[in-house]
Amino acid sequence: MTDLIQIADLTAEQLMTWLEPPRIEARFAILERVDAIDFPASDEAIALEMWSRGRIFGESFELRWECRGDMYHTRFTGEREVGPPFTVWPMPADTETCDPGCYLWGRAEMRIGRQLEYRAAPKGKGRLRLTRREFRRQSDGALMAERLTGMEWEAENESL
């Protein structure tokens, strides 16, 4: 089965049911606002009121959200259909997937102005990278969507 993209506008209460720790299937998280970014571990509670957007993710699915007024616009990407209030966004028929990665900032990156704590990342050495699945249109290679699938250390992946 291929990944489905499903979208919904959720209340804070509805979204919190997805974010309750421990997050077994989506053990990684990235939280963002204009002045900060955080990478909480799967056993840490997420305070929605402190973050304007975020995502939880793992091999099974990714759930992204962005606060819009008193609602949260959400996108679930994964192999299972989650049902209402989510509706399926139709992926073009000629879509193919690939699984590239991208590196995160180093822990002591001077341009950030503070040391980043990747609390959700497994223990490891080297550079930390996000693994992700891209959905591209075959006809022209246009990126239709993407979802994060995990975090790993550079040394764990010999093909880099």
Descriptive terms for the model:
four-stranded antiparallel beta sheet, seven-stranded antiparallel beta sheet, 160 residues, globular
Could you characterize the architecture of this molecule?
The chain has 160 residues and is mainly beta. It has 2 domains: 4-89, no CATH class; 95-156, no CATH class. It contains 1 helix and 11 strands; from the N terminus they run E-H-E-E-E-E-E-E-E-E-E-E. Strands 3-2-4-5-6-1-7 form a 7-stranded antiparallel sheet. Strands 8, 9, 10 and 11 form a 4-stranded antiparallel sheet that branches. A hairpin with a 2-residue loop joins strand 5 (61-68) and strand 6 (71-78). The mean pLDDT is 86.
SSE arrangement:
Layout: E1 4-10, H1 12-19, E2 28-33, E3 36-38, E4 53-57, E5 61-68, E6 71-78, E7 87-89, E8 95-98, E9 101-103, E10 128-137, E11 143-153
Summarize the structure in short.
This protein is mainly beta and 160 residues long. It has one helix at 12-19; strands at residues 4-10, 28-33, 36-38, 53-57, 61-68, 71-78, 87-89, 95-98, 101-103, 128-137, 143-153. It folds into two domains: 4-89, no CATH class; 95-156, no CATH class.
- Strand neighbour order, sheet with most strands: 3-2-4-5-6-1-7
Structural class: mainly beta
Mean pLDDT: 86
Radius of gyration: 16 Å
**Total strand count, please?**
11
Instruction: Extract low-pLDDT stretches.
Output: none
Instruction: Give the CA-CA distance, first to last residue.
Output: 27 Å
- The proportion of residues in beta strands is 35-45%
What's the oligomerization state?
A: single chain
- Helical residue percent band: under 10%
